[in-house]
Structures are given as C-alpha cells and as structure tokens.
Amino acid sequence: MTHVLRATCTHSTDHVVAAHMTRKFAIEVGFDERSADEVAISAAELVGNAVRHAGAGVLELRAIEGPRAGIEIVVRDRGPGIASPELALVDGWSRGGMLTPDSMPTKGLGRGLGAVQRLTDAAEIRTTGRETVVTARRYVGPPSPTRSAMVTFVRDG
Ligand SMILES: Nc1ncnc2c1ncn2[C@@H]1O[C@H](COP(=O)(O)OP(=O)(O)OP(=O)(O)O)[C@@H](O)[C@H]1O
Ligand SMILES: [Mg+2]
C-alpha cells in the first residue's frame, strides 16, 4: 500500500502540527533522528509559508518507494503566488524586501525557502497568480550530489 498522508493547514500554529506529523512519517519511512528533524523543518517552513503568505494550504506527504527510499513533501495553496521566486530563495528576502543585518525581523527571517533548499535533495516551485505548489524530496541516506539544487518553474497566469 502506498503510504500517503494529507492535511489541510489553516491556523498560524499548524506548521507545528505539520512538523510533528512529518517527523513521525519520516521515521516510519526509515530516516534517522537528525534527518527526520530536517525533513520536519522543511515541511514546517512550507506550511508556514502557505498559511502566512497565502492564508491556507494543503500538506501532502508521500513515501518514495523503490531502491532509494525517501519522502516527498508537497504543499499547495491557492494564494497570490510568489512574486519573485528567484529572490524568494535568497536568504534575508522576506515579503518583497531584503532584511538588513540591523533589522529586527518580527514577521520572518526570510530564510524558510533557503532552509528547504539546503535540507532537501530536490525541490521545485510552481507558482502562478492563483496558486503555489512546492514539491520537495529527501532521500534516506547520505546527501546526494544534488542536495541544495532548487529548480524553479514560473508560469504566468
Ligand atoms: N506560498 C507562498 N505564497 C506567496 N508568497 C510566498 C509563499 N512562500 C513564500 N512566499 C514569499 O517568499 C518570501 C520568502 O519566503 P521565506 O519562507 O524564505 O521567508 P519568510 O516566510 O518571509 O520568513 P521565514 O524565514 O520565517 O520563513 C516570503 O516573504 C513571501 O513573500
Ligand atoms: Mg517562510
């Protein structure tokens, strides 16, 4: 049976629930404790983005089966889309501007998507003016050479 878990996230604390669920799922898939933490952080950042920047989102976790076990995290929302996806990946870029070393961030560090990029083996952002879908995959075992490779697809519409 394919292992899948889905949760609708609407509340400002749902990223915590998402982290908990994802961590548990990751351990079941075969990740060690540290890797499960990293996978959980990735899911929490994406859910946090969907709730904060789009109002709500749906988290889907899938076990990747076959010779290389892993987990696929998909977070989709029907928000306004990410205005500048390439900039959104830059650490310190938050809500349309760059935080300076002196600024005291009260809403975010602008490092969430950067963290996902660093903690997963492959990730893809699809964003339009109506929705955003981020898919991130992380495999059990040592880092793949492609870890930190973020592929961004931007579509108009
Ligand atoms: N699902 C989304 N819908 C719309 N805009 C988004 C979405 N996800 C990210 N963004 C935009 O990309 C920016 C960067 O996201 P990122 O997660 O890196 O930082 P942040 O959410 O501002 O802060 P934090 O470090 O707390 O996550 C956000 O400030 C927001 O403008
Ligand atoms: Mg964020």
Can you describe what's shown?
This protein is an alpha+beta fold. The protein has one domain: Histidine kinase-like ATPase, C-terminal domain (Heat Shock Protein 90). Helices cover 32% and strands 29% of the residues. The protein is built from four helices and eight strands. Strand 2 and strand 3 form a beta hairpin. Helix 1 (14-29) runs antiparallel to helix 2 (33-54). The longest helix is centred in the N-terminal third of the chain and has 22 residues, at 33-54. The protein is globular, with a radius of gyration of 15 Å. Bound molecules: adenosine-5'-triphosphate and magnesium ion (MG). Magnesium ion binds next to helix 2.
The assigned structural class equals: alpha+beta
Shape, principal axes of CA atoms: globular
Q: Note the beta-strand portion.
A: 25-35%
Radius of gyration: 15 Å
The helix tally amounts to 4
Number of domains: 1
Q: Could you please say which CATH topology applies here?
A: Heat Shock Protein 90
CATH architectural grouping: 2-Layer Sandwich
Low-confidence runs (pLDDT<50, min 5 residues)?
A: none
Strand/helix succession = EHHEEHEEHEEE
Helix content: 25-40%
Give the number of DSSP strands. 8
Strand order of the largest sheet: 1-2-3-7-6-8
Mean pLDDT: 91
CATH C-level: Alpha Beta
* Distance between the first and last residues' Cα: 37 Å
The CATH superfamily turns out to be Histidine kinase-like ATPase, C-terminal domain
Largest sheet: 6 strands, mixed
Oligomer: single chain
GO molecular function: protein serine/threonine kinase activity
Protein name: Anti-sigma B factor RsbT
Keywords: Kinase, Serine/threonine-protein kinase, Transferase
Pfam families: HATPase_c_2
